[in-house]
Amino acid sequence: MRELTFIARARAVRMPLSEIGRYLSLARQGDETLPERTRIIAVQRQKVVERIASLQETLRVLDLKLSRAAEIAKDGTALPRSGLQIVRGGKDGR
C-alpha cells in the first residue's frame, strides 16, 4: 500500500515512471540505497519548486488580466499599456 501511495503522489507531481520504478527498486534493496533515493527525491523536489514558481507567475498574470477586465467593465474605459486613454464616441461613431 505504501508503494501505491508513493506512485500516486509521484505521478501527481509529474515524476517520470522510469524514476518511480528506479526509486522503488532501490527502496526494495534496503538502506544502503538511501543516498541515491535521497538524490532522486531532491531532484524531483527541485522540479516541483520550479513548477510552483512558474504556476505562481501564471496566476499573477491571470489576476492582472482579471483586474483589467473588471476595470474595463466598470466604466467602459481603461488606460492601455501606452498610458493613453481610450476615447469612445468619436466622429466615426466608435
Describe this structure in words.
- There is one protein chain.
- It is rod-shaped, with a radius of gyration of 25 Å.
- The chain has one domain (2-75).
- Helix 2 packs antiparallel against helix 3 (34-75).
- The relative contact order is 0.07.
- Helices cover 70% and strands 0% of the residues.
- The chain has helices at residues 2-12, 17-29, 34-75.
- It is built from three helices and no strands.
Number of domains: 1
Percent in strands: under 5%
Cα(first) to Cα(last) distance is: 65 Å
Low-confidence stretches: none
Give helix % range. Answer: over 70%
Order of helices and strands: HHH
Number of strands: 0
Please, what is the average pLDDT? Answer: 87
Tally of DSSP helical segments = 3
Report on the biggest sheet: none
Indicate the overall shape: rod-shaped
Determine the structural class based on helices, strands and strand pairing: mainly alpha
Alpha-carbon Rg, integer: 25 Å
